[in-house]
């Protein structure tokens, strides 16, 4: 622990703060005793001690009772009224003390003028009360700021942990489905298998080396999507038509990695089936200065005449929803549209 941290730790102790506060004022008052007759000093110190005791009572009554009970609860009118009453009582008591100490050294400077006595005690009392109150509110502000900082840091850590879990779900889920597709392909068309494995290795390379960052360039994510579509195209080229359109210029947007791929993967998983006469997957991405819009549509598979859309909304869709809520709160629109034979997802991001 360095010197700065040690001092911060020491002065964060409550009794040290109070001792420091009163020591400063007492040292300032002791300065006037330097040129005083030594025989008069004990009586002068007694007078100052009694005076400061009454002021201390007002200070701590204000800090410990009035501020917590009235100011902090929003009852400002009552706080001001009670504080004024207490201050008037304290100043009156301090002024009366002068008449019980007729031989004070500095009485000759004010010539026992009642108005001057009251003004002097008012000034002295307010110096103590206002400075202690200011110190209290500054300390509370620093405390609140530290608590907010700790809360923000903790919330950020929780957010990052949850995002890492969600991002971690995408990788094995994606790899499992892709490897399963390659395995199925190898059973009846081993010629295409090497090409699929090669393309898969390119996808894995991106996932390992690029996706470790919180954000990636949009153009890299688009290239990853194109590589994935090319991989899937090898598998479904005889049974499906795939359309990918990218509109608009990329102004250098950055997005969280693998945000779009679960939606596209979902379309391939559920939009291509032997039960469907035709399978056409359409992917449209529109890019503007402040927005990214992605729309994906695929045919719906029906079993025994019943369209099962619950199977469509699996882990991938739920993962996307959670990541969007964490990463783009109030800055995204995620919608799913279902017709008799088509399933469409629409995602709009405000960048």
TrEMBL record:
Keywords: Coiled coil, Membrane, Transmembrane, Transmembrane helix. Residues 161-238 form the Signal transduction histidine kinase internal region domain. It holds the Pfam family His_kinase. It comes from the Bacteria. Residues 142-169 form a coiled coil. The keyword Transferase does not apply. GO terms for cellular component: membrane. This is Signal transduction histidine kinase internal region domain-containing protein. It comes from Labilibaculum antarcticum.
């Amino acid at each position: 622990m360095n010197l700065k941290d040690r001092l911060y730790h020491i002065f964060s102790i409550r009794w040290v703060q109070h001792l420091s506060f009163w020591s400063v004022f007492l040292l300032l008052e002791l300065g006037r005793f330097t040129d005083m007759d030594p025989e008069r000093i004990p009586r002068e110190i007694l007078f100052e001690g009694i005076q400061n005791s009454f002021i201390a009572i007002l200070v701590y009554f204000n800090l410990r009772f009035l501020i917590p009970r009235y100011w902090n609860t929003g009852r400002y009118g009552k706080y001001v009224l009670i504080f004024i009453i207490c201050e008037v009582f304290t100043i009156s008591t301090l002024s009366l003390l002068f008449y019980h100490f007729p031989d004070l050294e500095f009485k000759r400077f004010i010539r026992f003028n009642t108005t001057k006595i009251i003004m002097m005690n008012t000034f002295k009392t307010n110096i103590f009360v206002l400075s202690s109150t200011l110190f209290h509110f500054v300390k509370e502000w620093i405390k609140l700021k530290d608590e907010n900082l700790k809360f923000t840091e903790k919330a950020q850590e929780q957010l990052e942990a949850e995002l890492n879990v969600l991002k971690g779900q995408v990788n094995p889920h994606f790899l499992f489905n892709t490897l399963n597709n390659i395995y199925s392909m190898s059973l009846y068309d081993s010629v295409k298998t090497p090409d699929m494995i090669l393309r898969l290795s390119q996808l894995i390379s991106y996932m390992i080396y690029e996706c470790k960052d919180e954000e990636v360039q949009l153009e890299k994510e688009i290239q990853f999507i194109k590589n994935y579509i090319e991989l899937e195209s090898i598998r479904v080229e005889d049974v499906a038509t795939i359309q990918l359109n990218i509109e608009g210029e990329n102004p250098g947007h950055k997005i969280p990695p693998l945000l779009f791929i679960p939606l596209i993967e979902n379309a391939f998983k559920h939009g291509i089936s032997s039960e469907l006469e035709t399978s056409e997957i359409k992917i449209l991405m529109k890019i503007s200065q402040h927005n990214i819009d992605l729309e994906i549509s695929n045919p719906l598979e029906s079993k025994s005449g019943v369209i099962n859309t619950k199977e469509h909304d699996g882990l991938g869709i739920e993962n996307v929803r959670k990541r969007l809520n964490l990463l783009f709160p109030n800055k995204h629109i995620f919608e799913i549209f279902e017709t008799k034979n088509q399933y469409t997802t629409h995602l709009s991001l405000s960048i």
